[in-house]
Amino acid sequence: MASSTDWEFDKFDDGSLKIVGELQLKKYGKFLEDYASQLKEIEDALDDSIGDAWDMSLDPIALQMLPYEQTNLLNLVKTDNKVLNKIITVLSALCCEMSHLKHEAETKFYNALLFYGEGEPEEGLEEGEAQVQMGRMIPLFQELSCFVSRSYDVIRNICQQLSALHNSYKSGPKLIDVTDVHFTPVYSHMADLLGVLITLDSIISNQSFIRDHWMLYKRMVKSVRHDPGKFNVPEEKLRPFEKLLMSLEGKLLDGMIYQNCVEQQFDSNTINCSKNPNLAEEFAINIKDILVELEGRIGENNEIDHRYKFVGVCGLYILHFQIFRVVDKKLFKQLWDIYKKIPCVHIMGNVVWFPCQFIQSRLPNIDQLLDRKAQLAVQTQQTTWLQQKTQLLTRDIQVYSTQVSAWMVKMESNLARGGTLMEDLNNRAVLFIQGLLYACNLSHLIRTVMNLHVALQKPMTKTAVLSLCKLVELLKAIEHTFHRRTMLIAESINHIIQHLCFNALSSIALAKKRIISDKKYSERRLDVLSALVLAETALHGPGSKERRLILKLALSVGTKMKAFKDDELNTLAETLRKLDAICEFREKVRQACDCSFIYWHRVILPLYLTDLCDNVTDTHRIHYMFTAIKDCVSPMLRVKHLPDSTELLTVFDKEIMAFLNDNLIDPLCRYIETDLRLHIHQHLQLDDRNPFKVGIKDLSHLLKIRPIRFFDRYINIRALVESYLSKTFYNLTTVALHDWKTYGEMRNMAQQKYGLNLVEPHLPSQTLEQGLDVLEIMRNIHVFVSKFLYNLNNQIFIEKTSNNKHLNTINIRHIANSIRTHGTGIMNTTINFTYQFLRKKFYIFSQFMYDDHIKSRLIKDWKFFRENHMQTDQKYPFERADKFNKGIRKLGMTPDGESYLDQFRTLISQIGNAMGYIRMIRSGGLHCCSNAIRFIPDLDDIISFEELCTEEGLSGECTSAAKNLDMVINNLAKNFAEGTDYFKMLVDVFSPEFRNPKNMHLRNFFVILPPLTLNFVEHSISCKEKMNRKNKVGAAFTDDGFSMGVAYILKLLDQYHEFDSLHWFQSVREKYYHDKKILILQNQVSQQAAGRVDEKLQQTMSLTLKRIDLYMQEFDLLYYSLSSARIFFRADMTAAEEKAEEKEKEKGNVSYSILKN
């Protein structure tokens, strides 16, 4: 005790400790907030989506918020009032049955019938395919027949149950007093089921494919019945099958599904519905009550799915007429006048339902109720409504964009909390329902306008199409917002339901208190009290469909006896409406935002994509459109007429991708490519690109679009453009290698301007290694020698002219590559082809030399030289050659301006090119052999692999392989060491014929060489001068084929000494030296005479000297080339000396062999 009292003073420190503790808690709380914000920033940086929800296109997990009831109806409907229990149980069970039937029709039959015939190939169905497709549908039609029969039974049963309930006969069973009790939920469910039957009729009557294919199928069955053995079908099965087909046709395909339902017999032995006035009155009252509610909402901003219920109400009205044969004119007028609000109801897909047409076709004697003018006014109103809505679309977009954007901002914000929890929940409920209403309004507008255009066959303007597409984007934006805020909705929705249930319970508790306070108990009052107790029980639990149905049925009874005041009743009705909307919120949003109808209007997509490319604004909205297109997938999976539903998906996928490529991707690629080209080629004279005049279009926004999820792929627009540009630049660079730099600059510009990372082509910037192939040259040697020019020193052929910006070249490496590809055997074949070519050319050569004009001039010139060789100092006169060169032009010119001597020069050059090609073939062969043999260590000491294998005792196969290897190595070594002297072969084969006495006209060849070389020099100077001109046609800097040709022919004729005896090149040199000397003397004399320097004369002098130097240089080059070419043909020896040398060699070989022996 003492110790406890000692520590009592600690009580006085409580205040300070509390302050310290609170301070620490605040610090800790701040730390947690900072840490949470940091984590959120990291998450946002890693994930480009906004909010806590995952990407909608992936949707790996679905959060289902629809309340699910696990308790059966018998356990839910429990009060002390047994009779009331039975009535509520029966009615609720029938309503649940009708709901299940409606759900079955929506999920199983609608889309299977709607998509029948889709996926047909462009060329049409093959023979018999229509019957096969219809055959696949027969099981579905059987199920549909059973479904329709079940629906008939349920409708009949519900009418009989209601007739029994409102029975006015005393003899009937004792039930509760239902005076002024209106079971409106039952009639509402009945209207929904009748709406299903009307929808089935509308879909089937809208499907021409079904009727056409059904006729073909019936004909096929008849043909099978005529010869069942042929098709291996038992005859006894065909008759029942035909009866089944007839039954299905009459029941389903004649458009009488709904009509057969309302015309069935509703009276039975115990219950007489048609003669029950109470039921007839109750029927009419309930139709009026439902219609009053629908009329106030249809076409207004607070409409959800009321127009779809209106379809069923029309069906209910016709059912009322068919049973009771009474026409309520006031009610009829109310139904008829709905067309002024909405001209039609888009049911689904491409099916449009016109209420006035439906009533006209189902109600006899309509002319008594309506005059002709009123009937015609309907069509006028439809057209007027469509025109007005189309004109107001632009305004509607602005209004809806503003409203939806404001709503999205509120949804994305943290939802500022109200003063109390109740206010907060109310605000959230209102916000959620507001988003749902926006979605419903947009959906109704889009569906009605689009489908009414089709139904009335009115073309849509481009503006209208684009406006509707923007509305579709807004609709999907609402859906995406709801998805992004999934966590908020999931967190709030149960609290909202509880709050609404509490409000309803409070109202019911007041009513109960009011009933209990009245001590005058009666059966009717007890029924009302039991009904209120049942309503309370239903509200104590999740807001499932079953509980809400029981609640409404119970309140149908519980609202009588003035249990509720009028304002309380209105408040309760509003609360229940909100409860319905919130409980079915996810399903309602899904239905409102479903854009599967886009499948039937997909022709608008090219226009939409083209506009997106032309007007680059809000490019990310394309994601919304593709989400809308994705909605078409789920219904397509229900198809039954194809072997597999994925076939239709594949066709749809290809079609949409074709739209995307043709109208967005390809134009975008082409535009960016063109833009890059214009940027790079700005130095050229281009069209005016002033943005203030021609405008500017920044397509880079399209490249920033996130990858679009579509079916099993991601469409990455940036990657597709990069792929296109990389491929284009690569292909164009391979075609024109000289443009590699331009495409490199364009690649860099793409990176800088658009942020595109293109693949480097890694192509050579100059030439390709392989060059022309030997086989190709060999086959076209006549073309090759005329199109290419030979360079003796570099052993290279250069193309004369080309349509491209580059000239092809051929060198030893190219030839070696070709020989390596085709083998060394190609070399001999090439020589044979060249031999054939030379034969033809030498024939032309002989004809030219044999010509009388040429021959006579040559003989004359040779005679002059022999007679005057002493006076000319043994040198052929330059004047003589010049005279020949100019004089031959008198014989005639070709259209190209060439003389006969020009053509002869070209012939000699072609023969020389052929010899240059032979030389290159030999060099290429040696190059190839050297590359192949470089792995042999010592060519002088080659090991025999065959002997080694034999010594080691290896198998026969190894020895055979070693023998082949030895042969290959020896062949390579022989080719490398010796090589084949192809020049000698071609000299030996032609020289006997050339030196034959019968070809004496060829002996004058050496005499034509002076004028021929003069002609060549003039031609060469002309070609080189063209090198510096803009137009380079005919330009060349080398033509050593002429030297090769002259050297070869001189060797064949054995005229080297004869040509040398002319001393022609010395004569040319002396002539030009003499001209220069005279020119310089003339210049000095003129200067001395004038006493000053004449500038014009000086310029003329310098130009003339330059020209003389140029000619001297060209003649020197020709002399050197000719001297080099003569070495190949051993110009130091005459034919006689060569023969003598060969004889000496033969003698030496014989002596050596004798000594050896």
For the termini, the CA-CA separation is 146 Å
Could you say which overall geometry the principal axes of the C-alpha atoms support?
Answer: elongated
> How many β-strand runs?
7
User: Helix fraction?
Assistant: 55-70%
Specify the structural class: mainly alpha
Fraction of residues in β-strands = under 5%
User: How would you sum up the major sheet?
Assistant: 3 strands, antiparallel
User: How many DSSP helices?
Assistant: 47
- Order of strands across the main sheet: 5-6-7
Q: Could you describe the 3D structure shown?
A:
By secondary structure, this protein is mainly α. Among the domains are: 597-714, no CATH class; 774-1088 and 1097-1139, no CATH class. The protein contains 47 helices and seven strands. Strands 5-6-7 form a three-stranded antiparallel sheet. A hairpin with a 2-residue loop joins β1 (345-348) and β2 (351-353). The chain starts with a helix and ends with a helix. Mean pLDDT is 85; it is low at 1-11, 48-53 and 1150-1157.
Task: State the main characteristics.
1157 residues, disordered C terminus, two-stranded antiparallel sheet, 47 helices, mainly alpha, 69% helix
Short description:
With 1157 residues, the chain is mainly α.
